[in-house]
Specification:
By secondary structure, the chain is α+β, with helices and mostly antiparallel strands. Helix content is 42%, strand content 19%. The protein has 13 helices and 15 strands. The strands form three sheets. Strands 5-6-7-2-13-12 form a six-stranded mixed β-sheet, with helices on both faces. α8 packs across α12.
Length: 524
């Protein structure tokens, strides 16, 4: 038996019919060339007939305040195989995922399900995996993913994801003495955290709240379209973006990629709310989960949160970016002064009231933040499953009463995979957010190009001026005026060339987009 972590307990108690508390992932695979027509059926049969034994947390079920091993584990309850209706477009796939992500997981069994989905256009199949957030967080889930698949395209070994034994299972086999030592170490860490946490709380209350413009409190988020009671219906939309586009913007503007991601989301949310005539006068506040894992563990939850001012009251993208950068950096600077245990205790004090409001659902329109934006680092190498290459992976997350939208991203190879999870009834045309994200990336790309072009023209003009000063034309020389290239002509030609280059550059980047009324995934 393993006791529930306090955060795990909170996730379990937050769950109700209209508020499922599981996270999920949609994995798209390319069937190998020359694979037999029975490739997927053979894969499913091998999984069902596998002699591998499920390992924690996949064989754990709830038993009061503990995780206990399920002695009656039934693979048929957790593992399902379906085929999409014709024509098997991504649209049909996302409808199915939306429906499945709306359904609660049976608490009498281990809290997860896995679906193999065939019949997808482009000779592809998918796996949709969902697991309760009480069992795992995003970083832990990504680590489990990397252990479940292979980096070798020729590997044909099939081990079900729920049977991959890693360090997590070995730790659970530790002796009672080792477990007792770990408990004592944890208690010691909690006691040692008190002085530093008290110091930081004093700093927050008396030196930052109301005095530091970069400090974001849990009381300044405005009421918005995203902050209302949710139904049990979910809408899932997803899309892939080229990661190097964010990297180029980051490098040109001297900010982090995470800053750029938040700024792009800020602009997209602003545009979406404008189309709904629902943009608040005050800026939206985003909750950005931050992992506190300082080990290689892949179980339970070790997260805190950063509140970021999205600056959605500002029209200019660069102005919003600067606001985001400063507010995020302010939180990072505070957390750098603390250990992970100290951060957990600090967060419990500062954000406790906000958590109670979410848990009770009493004031859904009065939230500490307006939207959750999460960015989880993913695999950097291509992954394979029984020789089938993983083409894309899209995270699906949680929405709550008062939090009707969740934006979760993960990186894979050279792409940023974006998953939008929202309440179908509360947020009309949610898939349009994908279009707004693409448009916002292009805005930053245009701004960078215009700045670069302006600098180039200015440099050219300076060179012309320098040449004229160092080698002036003598009045006595017989020079035909046609042979003298005028500076204004050069500048004009440079502007024309820059404009042509700008158009070409933008057209190269627009490799995909979401149709206004279509939620299809369109990988680059």
């Amino acid at each position: 038996m393993r006791p529930l972590h306090p955060i795990d307990f909170i996730f379990l108690n937050l769950e109700k019919r209209q508020q499922p508390m599981h996270v999920g992932g949609l994995f798209l695979f390319q069937i190998p060339d020359h694979a037999p027509s029975t490739f997927i059926q053979d894969l499913v049969a091998d999984i069902r007939n596998s002699k591998s034994i499920p390992v924690p947390p996949f064989n754990n079920r709830l038993n009061g305040l503990f995780w206990d091993e399920d002695e009656e584990f039934d693979i048929d309850h957790h593992f399902r195989h379906i085929s999409l209706p014709h024509p098997g477009r991504i649209r049909e796939l996302l409808v199915y995922i939306s429906q499945e992500h709306s359904a609660l997981i049976d608490r009498a069994k281990p809290l997860w399900t896995c679906h193999i989905i065939e019949g997808i256009e482009g000779n592809r199949f998918a796996m949709y995996f969902k697991i309760h957030h009480a069992m795992i967080d995003g970083v832990a889930g990504m680590r489990l993913l990397e252990k479940s698949f292979s980096k070798d395209p020729e590997s044909k070994t099939i081990i079900p994801p729920w049977c991959v034994e890693g360090k997590r299972a070995k730790r659970l086999k530790a002796t009672k003495l080792d477990k007792a030592k770990k408990i004592m170490s944890t208690l010691k860490g909690q006691v040692e955290a008190v002085p530093k946490v008290t110091q930081e709380l004093f700093q927050t209350v008396f030196k930052e709240m109301g005095k530091n413009p970069d400090y974001v409190s849990s009381f300044q988020a405005p009421s918005s379209l995203f902050n209302q009671r949710v139904s049990s219906s979910r809408r899932f939309a997803a899309q892939s973006f080229e990661l190097n586009r964010f990297g180029s913007i980051s490098k040109a503007l001297g900010v982090t990629i995470n800053d750029v991601v938040l700024a792009v989301c800020s602009g997209a949310l602003r545009d979406y709310l404008i189309t709904q005539n629902a943009l608040p006068k005050k800026p939206l506040i985003a909750m950005v989960p931050a992992s506190l894992r300082d080990d290689d563990s892949d179980m339970s939850n070790r997260i805190t949160m950063i509140l970021a001012n999205l600056g959605t009251d500002k029209e200019q993208p660069l102005e919003r970016l600067e606001i985001i950068k400063r507010s995020v950096q302010n939180s990072k600077n505070r957390f750098k002064r603390m250990t992970s245990n100290q951060i957990m205790n600090y967060s419990a004090f500062v954000y406790g009231p906000a958590g109670l409001n979410i848990a009770s659902g009493l004031l859904p329109k009065h939230q500490a933040f307006n939207v959750i934006i999460s960015n989880v680092p993913g695999p950097r190498e291509p992954l394979y499953w029984n020789g089938a290459k993983l083409d894309a992976l899209y995270p699906a997350s949680i929405v709550l009463d008062g939090q009707a939208l969740n934006i979760t991203m993960t990186s894979y190879l050279d792409k940023l995979e974006v998953g939008l999870t929202g309440c179908r009834k509360s947020l009309p045309k949610l898939q349009n957010l994908l279009t707004h994200l693409e448009n916002e990336i292009q805005k930053f790309e245009r701004l960078i190009f215009e700045t670069t072009s302006s600098d180039l023209i200015e440099s050219e003009q300076k060179q012309i001026d320098a040449v004229e000063k160092s080698a002036p034309v003598s009045p006595k020389q017989d020079v035909d005026s046609k042979d003298i290239v005028q500076p204004k002509t050069i500048v004009k030609e440079t502007k024309i060339q820059a404009q042509e280059s700008k158009q070409a550059d933008v057209s190269q980047h627009v490799s995909f987009s979401a149709e206004p009324n279509d939620n299809e995934i369109k990988p680059s």
